[in-house]
Structures are given as structure tokens and as C-alpha cells.
Design goal:
The chain is of the alpha/beta class. A hairpin with a 2-residue loop joins β4 and β5.
């Protein structure tokens, strides 16, 4: 198993209710550094297509605070390398991390509390988004982008097959069967074994809560009844050959996508940019629709992905790094670049600007793109908690689900195995966990 153990201890770090992930940051001092505080050099790790241009814009506007940007890989690579660098004492001043990764990095002692520098930007974000980086009165990052879930679909192929975007997951199954009947070489969508965040988002949409903490005691719900029911739903589609069980973004998958044989992706607002990167010739053919509902009339959705810009605990220029984090995620020049690159900004002003912009290239012909996107962002489920060992959960989930698909064993058993490994890891690390 590719299980990653956490460094640090909840007792040593005093991180008890901190990880509840449901309390707002306390407004701090607005006495943040400016460019006239003297020459400062910052090291910054972050992935993403907009980062290079944003950093260049920041450096141009702040000649006395210069940032060197390095892409060390996506969230998982960045988190792993940041932990190693933190232990060695040579971590960067700032780094991007996905929201679900923040609790484990806080427990590991890698991130600084920047609440004293962020009180002036708290209101630039919705409470639901600000909560993603705020824990028990401490602030550990400035939200950068968010990924409310939607259904991304090939509108051209839907029209050719005379099918409509499904409103509920029950309808989704019917449409999946219709696609297979009308084009035996095509599938409505893919069930990918490595998509931990995607499955978590669908389970959260259905009402699951995978981590909760109260009075220093954790409850883990990865294998709760709701999550098992979501697993059973996808199991039924796989068993009936109505969806394709395979990894995403492989050469084979990309080829099927370009041939119009994969018609949809229940994902997030960043997905059109990803698909455009592998299917440029389909620009304008795609659209987004509201994510199908588990219960008709309940249009709430979870976030899938999204990241924050954090300041490391070992930074010798934490105040300057916090100012950098705020500018990168609230300044008009910064969020305009995000929008241009197909990202959905976390800030309210950025989201407003996105609504006034053309849709992403993949969905260029969808006139109501931003209306659908904005509604999804407004209907996200608040106070979703992530646990202190999400990296362990990701690895365990991927291993267990991959084995289940290979061996044709139940997905619900893979969830139970993941749950047990996560609980075992938490107990070994020193957390108090209730239940099985």
C-alpha cells in the first residue's frame, strides 16, 4: 500500500478543535507589509497555468518584494515535498495546497497562522470559501480558486444522439443506458479509480461526512451508509457496462474523448480547461449543466478541488509572504489572469469578473455558462470537514478501488477497507477515534 504517515502529533501541536474545519478566522491586523518595507526575496511553490503570469504581474507591481516561482508538481507532489523541505528547514516562503490537504499540513507543523495579516481580506470571500482555510480562529491560507461541481458534457454529441443533460442521478443512469443503445462504442462517462476527490464530492453531495471532530474525538464516515449507497450506484452502472471503468487523461482515454466516445464528466468548474488541453478541436462543442441531484429538488453540491496560497511556518518573511498571498488572490490583475486561463477565482470580485467574461474555450458557445457556474458556486455545501490524514485516505482509496475494479469485487468493500486503514492510521498517529 502507498500509505503516507503524517509527521507531528495532535497533542504536540495543540490541534484539537482546530481541525473541525467549520469555524471562521478571526479578523486580524490590517498592518500588512507593503513594497516600501525593503527588498525581500520570496520562494513560492505552485502548480497551475496561471501562476507564472500572476507572479510576473506581482513582481512588476512590487519591485521591493520579488517572488521566484517553482512548479514542483500538483497538490500531492507539492505537499510531500513541502513536508520534506519543512523538516530540513529549507521550505519555500509560500506554497499552494488544495483545501483537503490543509489539515494534514497544519498537523505536521508546516504552515503559519497568518490571521494577523488577513483581516482586511476576509470579506473578499464568501463565508463558505473563507471557512476552507480557517480553523478555530486561525487562518492558514488565502483562498485561490474553487471547484464547485457541475456536469461537463459534449453538447454536440448529446444533440446528435437526441439526449438531454440528466437532472437527477436516476436520470443519469437512464441516459447512460440510452447512450450505449444509440452508440455501442460510446459511454456517457468514466468511473476512474484514482479520483478520490470526485467520489468524495459525490458522497458529500448525497449527505456523507467523512471526517468530524468534537471534544478532541474524531468520527470517520468513509464507509457510512450514504457512501456505501453511492458506491452501490456506481457499481450498478459498471456491472451493466453503462459507464467505462478506467483512468482519466491517459492516451487511451484522451483518444476516446477526441473521437466523441466519452460524452460527459461529472466534475468541477476547472474541468473545461483540462478537457480543452486534450481536445482542442472540440472547442465550442461542450457545455456545463447542474450536477445531477441525489434527491430531486436538492441542488446543493460539494467542492471538488480548489486551492489556497499558504505561508510556511519556517518563512523568515511571513508578513511579506502573506501580502503576496493576498494580492495573488484578491487583486484584479491576478484574478483576470486566472479567468483568462480558465480558473474560477475564489474571491467574490473575481467571480463577478468571471461572470462578465467569455466562457472557457471548450464551452465557448454556451451563453448561460456563467449563470450555471455562479449558481453552482452559490449552492455549495458549507462546513465540509477534511481529516488530518487525507493523503493516507487518497492512497488507500486508490489502491482499494483499483483492486476492486480489477478483481470485480464490490466497491462498497473497497470503501470499508479504505475506512479501516484511515482509522488505523489516525489511531497510530495519536488521534482519538470513536467507532469502528
Amino acid at each position: 500500500m502507498r500509505i503516507t504517515r503524517l509527521g507531528g502529533s495532535i497533542a504536540v501541536l495543540g490541534m484539537t478543535a482546530v481541525l473541525a474545519a467549520c469555524s471562521s478566522g478571526t479578523p486580524g491586523s490590517t498592518d500588512t507589509p507593503t513594497a516600501n518595507t525593503g527588498p525581500v526575496a520570496l520562494e513560492f511553490w505552485c502548480w497551475g497555468t496561471s501562476q507564472k503570469a500572476k507572479v510576473e504581474a506581482f513582481n512588476k507591481a512590487h519591485p521591493n518584494v520579488q517572488v521566484n516561482h517553482t512548479d514542483v508538481g500538483g497538490d500531492r507532489d507539492t505537499a510531500a515535498k513541502l513536508l520534506t523541505a519543512n523538516r530540513a528547514g529549507n521550505a519555500p516562503d509560500a506554497a499552494c495546497l488544495e483545501y483537503e490537504t490543509l489539515p494534514s499540513m497544519i498537523v505536521a507543523g508546516a504552515l503559519a497562522d497568518i490571521s494577523a495579516h488577513t483581516g482586511d481580506v476576509k470579506d473578499a470571500f464568501s463565508p463558505e470559501v473563507w471557512d476552507l482555510t480557517s480553523f478555530d480562529g486561525a487562518v492558514y491560507g488565502v483562498p485561490q480558486d474553487v471547484g464547485p461541481m457541475v456536469l461537463v458534457y459534449n453538447k454536440k454529441r448529446f444533440q446528435e444522439l437526441k439526449i438531454e443533460p440528466p437532472a437527477t442521478w436516476q436520470d443519469f443512469a437512464k441516459v447512460a443506458a440510452d447512450v450505449r443503445k444509440k452508440d455501442p462504442e460510446a459511454y456517457l462517462t468514466t468511473f476512474a479509480p484514482a479520483e478520490f476527490g470526485n467520489f468524495a464530492g459525490l458522497a458529500q453531495q448525497a449527505g456523507a461526512s467523512w471526517w468530524q471532530v468534537q471534544d478532541q474525538t474524531w468520527t470517520v464516515g468513509i464507509a457510512d451508509q450514504t457512501s456505501h449507497e453511492v458506491a452501490d450506484y456506481w457499481q450498478g452502472l459498471i456491472d451493466k457496462d453503462l459507464v467505462k471503468a478506467q483512468p482519466l487523461l491517459t492516451p487511451e482515454w484522451n483518444n476516446q474523448l477526441n473521437k466523441g466516445k466519452i460524452l460527459a464528466w461529472p466534475s468541477a468548474l476547472w474541468a473545461p480547461g483540462v478537457l480543452y488541453g486534450v481536445a482542442e478541436k472540440q472547442a465550442g462543442d461542450w457545455a456545463i449543466a447542474p450536477l445531477p441531484q441525489w434527491k430531486e429538488g436538492d441542488d446543493r453540491v460539494a467542492f471538488q478541488g480548489g486551492s489556497a496560497l499558504t505561508v510556511t511556518k519556517t518563512s523568515k518573511n511571513a508578513a511579506a509572504a502573506a501580502t503576496f498571498a493576498k494580492w495573488m488572490n484578491t487583486d484584479k490583475a491576478a484574478y483576470d489572469l486566472q479567468i483568462e486561463m480558465g480558473e474560477y477565482p475564489a474571491s467574490l470580485a473575481g467571480q463577478q469578473a468571471a461572470g462578465d467574461s467569455p466562457p472557457p474555450k471548450l464551452t465557448a458557445n454556451q451563453k448561460d455558462y456563467w449563470d450555471v457556474a455562479t449558481k453552482a458556486a452559490q449552492r455549495t455545501i458549507p462546513h465540509i470537514s477534511w481529516g488530518p490524514n487525507v493523503s493516507t485516505a487518497k492512497s488507500a482509496y486508490e489502491d482499494a478501488v483499483s483492486a476492486a475494479l480489477r478483481d470485480r469485487t464490490p466497491l462498497r468493500d473497497a470503501l470499508t477497507k479504505t475506512h479501516n486503514l484511515v482509522v488505523e492510521d489516525m489511531k497510530t498517529t495519536g488521534f482519538k477515534v470513536t467507532g469502528p
